[in-house]
Design goal:
This protein is α+β, with helices and mostly antiparallel strands and about 500 residues long. About 25% of the residues lie in helices and about 25% in strands. Strand 3 and strand 4 form a beta hairpin.
């Protein structure tokens, strides 16, 4: 068992954090560094920054955390008036330096840098089409496929090429794009991954995956980039357009509320609790999830604890609604996933206690409600339950602040296959027996949507229901663009389940 393995981290792994800034006269590389630092929770494999002074693009990216990749000297070598940045957790392509973003691309339409959060489901098909016309690729990432569609694809101007991208690319893509004279922020027509706009010092513009990055820079949150929207920041200010026309399946102005599929797990787990998504501050939303969970699955107990840090707010909500006292029962080592030094066998045998340490004085002799955000494979939770029992708890009641995860995600979350998802293969009672809890309760889908307060038809619940908002492959190989898939790329079957949120045209 290695640090960071599924045995020690049985949660979902998204994701990426993207950032962009247009602010002449500011140290845009330094602003991007601190913006990425605020988004570090969205990816810890690599980090990169690209800048422009209006004449040339400069880029620096490497493996590691933001603070490990960038030094004062590295930032000093990135002058300019605009920048984009990226911190990565790989979902398509290996975790290698060559796949570290942003990517710097040159093509028939000029030069650009691009950073991407999400996953393009049909990237293999798009890549094959581009390769057949002579396009060359340097990486195994779907981000380069998106970039090549924009820099080498058909279309005389940016709006036309963005329209081609949105008609052809199936999946999730929130983008920041840097050219010599502008920064673009883009969300796919479904709006699966978040992206927001901020105002900096009354004259600059900032884009970020989450509003917490704006807060750290003192930028004012303006609004979210809308699904299917392209926002451009340049010397003239801020402009936006919606590339899809009505006959393409989109709306002339923007997609409707019913045409959106924002990932519900952003509210449950992915985003920081101090971020706002769709206008909702996540900490109280997660407290509402815990409160609703206590209504749906009440139990007599002495204390409520949360599995830190992502379930803390839900645990507080459960405690307040149930009247059972809340306490901190598990202390988290927040740096366990930050080392490249592997534990020896003795430490491996201690398993999850490398990550959590129980407070015996809080747990001994108590009936304990343990609130967590999810169970994916079911590898960590049994160890957590055992640890709490070993600390003296007389009963352990597990409560999940999300519905059972029964289907894999194809939109930018590095999730187990369906065969590895415990809830896809076992009943709730069987999972309870597997993890060794006295009782187990999951928050309902209806309760989750109510707590998120984003409205019907504005979210993706595919990992809970199997109802994907667009066509998805029956199987997915994150290394498919490296030629490692046993099934030829063009033969991977596609399955669509109802309801379809936006009928994207695949060409």
């Amino acid at each position: 068992m290695e640090l960071g393995s599924s045995a020690l981290h049985d949660h979902l792994n998204e994701k990426c954090g993207i950032f962009g800034v247009f602010a002449p006269g500011e140290d845009v590389a330094r602003l991007t560094f601190f913006g990425l630092h605020a988004l570090q929770h969205r990816g810890q494999e690599s980090a990169g920054i690209a800048t422009t002074d209006g004449k040339r693009l400069n880029l620096y990216a490497d493996m590691g955390l933001v603070s490990q990749v960038f030094t004062e000297d590295a930032l000093a070598a990135l002058p300019g008036r605009a920048a984009i940045g990226h911190t990565r957790y790989s979902t398509t392509g290996s975790s290698t330096r060559g796949n570290a973003q942003p990517f710097h691309l040159k093509g028939m339409h000029g030069e650009m840098a691009i950073a991407h959060n999400g996953n393009v489901v049909n990237a293999d098909v798009l890549r094959s089409d581009l390769a057949s016309t002579g396009t060359m690729f340097d990486t195994s990432s779907d981000t380069e496929v998106i970039g090549r569609l924009l820099i080498d694809g058909p279309g005389e101007d940016w709006p036309e090429r963005f329209g081609q991208l949105m008609r052809r690319a199936n999946g999730a893509y929130s983008l920041t794009i840097l050219t010599h004279d502008a920064v673009y922020a883009v969300r796919d027509p479904l709006g699966i991954r978040p992206l927001c706009i901020g105002r900096l010092n009354g004259q600059g513009w900032v884009f970020a995956s989450e509003t917490c990055a704006l807060d750290h820079l003192g930028a004012e949150y303006i609004r979210d980039v809308r699904p299917g929207e392209v926002v451009r920041a340049d010397g003239e200010g801020l402009t936006s357009f919606f590339p899809l026309s009505a006959e393409d399946g989109g709306m002339p102005g923007q997609t409707t509320d019913q045409d959106q599929a924002l990932c519900l797990f952003e509210f449950i787990y992915f985003a920081r609790p101090d971020s706002r998504i769709s206008g909702q501050l996540l900490h109280p939303a997660r407290m509402r999830m815990g409160a609703r969970l206590s209504e749906e699955h009440p139990v007599e107990a002495d204390v409520v604890i949360g599995v830190p840090d992502s379930a803390t707010a839900a645990a507080i909500g459960y405690a307040q609604a149930s009247g059972i006292p809340y306490a901190e029962g598990l202390v988290k080592n927040r740096y366990v996933g930050r080392t490249f030094i592997q534990p020896d066998q003795r430490l491996r045998d201690r398993g999850v206690q490398l990550k959590f340490n129980p407070l015996r004085e809080v747990l001994a002799g108590k009936r304990v409600v343990v609130v967590d955000d999810s169970i994916v494979r079911g590898t960590t939770t049994p160890r957590v339950v055992k640890m709490i029992r070993d600390a003296g708890a007389t009963e352990v009641h597990m409560r999940m602040a999300s519905p059972p995860i029964t289907h894999p995600c194809f939109y930018g979350v590095d999730m187990a296959t369906r065969g590895e998802l415990i809830a896809a293969n076992l009943s709730v009672d069987e999972i309870r027996d597997h993890i060794g809890a006295d009782t187990l309760g999951y928050l309902s889908i209806e309760g989750t949507v109510w707590a998120a307060n984003i409205g019907e038809g504005q979210h993706c619940t595919a990992c809970f229901t199997g109802k994907y908002p667009s066509a998805v492959p029956l199987q997915f190989d994150k290394f498919a663009l490296e030629g490692g898939s046993e099934v030829p790329d063009h033969e991977i079957p596609m399955a669509r389940t109802e309801p379809v949120v936006v009928p994207l045209t695949l060409r």
